[in-house]
Specification:
mainly alpha; 6 helices; 71% helix; 0% strand
Length: 112
């Protein structure tokens, strides 16, 4: 009986080590300081024209395409930062959070 309890404890311990990165990413999906309304305004002002010229229409297909680059909440934040840097938008962290919150709410739906 004691050996069985030790094996069970080891299994729980090993599972927690393996599962922790996946669970941690799940919790980064929440952008608590982000305001989706402010994010929408930033996207409309700074992102739509570039996305529309690259993907046609209103540019929204960049978010919904089958082979999209962004697959995690962490990836979304990284992509926003990349665009911010490459386009010289000079957004602050809170503005990036607003955009992430809007895009997550509207297109990605990454969960807690």
């Amino acid at each position: 009986m004691k050996i069985c309890a030790i094996k069970k404890s080891m299994f729980v311990f090993l599972f927690s080590i393996i599962a922790t990165p996946a669970l941690a990413d799940q919790y980064t999906a929440i952008y608590p300081s982000g305001d989706p309304a402010l994010g929408k305004a930033l996207v409309q002002k700074n992102c739509i024209s570039c996305h529309a010229s690259s993907f046609g229409g209103d540019g929204a297909s960049i978010y919904t395409r089958e082979n999209r680059i962004v697959k995690t909440s962490r990836g979304l934040k990284a992509q926003i930062r990349n665009c911010n840097t490459m386009l010289g938008l000079k957004w602050f962290e809170d503005e990036e959070q607003h955009v992430a919150s809007y895009l997550n709410q509207t297109y990605y739906h990454f969960e807690k």
